Amino acid sequence: MSGDKRVHTSVPDTETAIDRNLPEFPAAKPIDEDNYFRLHKPPPYLSQISRDVAEFINYHHLQKRKIVLVTSGGTTVPLENNTVRFIDNFSAGTRGATSAEYFLENGYAVVFLHREFSLLPYSRHYSHTTNCFLDYMTESEDGKVEVNAEFQKEMIVVLRKYRHVQNNNLLLLVPFTTVHQYLFTLKLIAQELSVIGSDALFYLAAAVSDFFLPSSRVPEHKIQSQESGGKLVVDLEPVPKFLSRLVDSWAPISMIVSFKLETDSSILIKKSKGALERYNHQLVIGNLLQTRKHEVVFVTKDSERWVRLSQDQVDAGIDIESLIIPEVIELHKSSIEEKKKMGL
Q1: By three-state DSSP, how is residue 86 classified?
Q2: Is 175:114 a contact under the CB 8 Å cutoff?
Q3: Quick check: helix, strand or coil at residue 331?
Q4: Which residues in the chain land under pLDDT 50?
Q5: CA-derived radius of gyration, the chain
Q6: How far apart are CA 193 and CA 255, in angstroms?
Q7: How many CB atoms lie within 10 A of CB 299?
Q8: C or N terminus of the chain, fewer CB within 10 Å?
Q9: Which pLDDT value is given to residue 72?
Q10: CA 230 to chain centre
């Protein structure tokens, strides 16, 4: 299929959006943190990540460059240790990967904590698209593979940006798959970033699982359908809301931006304000599943303001992140100045 006739299966049916007026889980307390990290094993590769992150932070701190942690993609909840089945969500990491590019273009170094195999900065333009990567290639008369002339102008721009980032060590890729891996790694990176204080920015765009299966109840091998009588009943526990620990303990001086995704426009602002009150951080960016690529709302303790693409910008293929990130950076600058006045 080609042109406007192409089928897009990822577009939600707005007529069947669910009303989510359920109360939020309470913020995690220190004892919740202690219990969670005591009862679950850290990923075996965590020490390697610790070294890589520390080196990256030290390198850019010496150059007085601000650093942003961008989280991206969705976490999984394995139902077996030797995982065959798991619970997942729809996130492909589009918001995080796109935002990371605009942070990089605005002078930040980026630690990109992402779901493994989700979208990455720069390569996102040519992966997970409706075109096969081979559609961008052509064969020359002498039998060599070349970029199709139709795409060369756009591709050279992306390639130059990517090379600049690579040559200047501006991007550190840190993967996760499960919710446990994400939380252990988030805590580690937050504690490493604490050395640069208010120059650190947290941009939490990952879709983190609300529920998990405790390690004590995870079977070792694949669940057999015959043994369960053809039914699978899973008793999940709520994931502790560690954003409160990030704000209060792991990164108390840094600016923290979280996202609130809803499907019901009538509760989006209420939910966003509720998150600010509950976790006491600086900014919630609210967005609706149906319109998240075209508009978001910035919710702070004192204000709420919509950021929208015009129809001309939508038609031109402008990323809404090109509007979001400069505004976040201005708020980060204000936060840094405020912390300096407070002697932090």
Answers
A1: strand
A2: yes
A3: helix
A4: 1-4, 7-22
A5: 21
A6: 12
A7: 24
A8: N
A9: 98
A10: 36
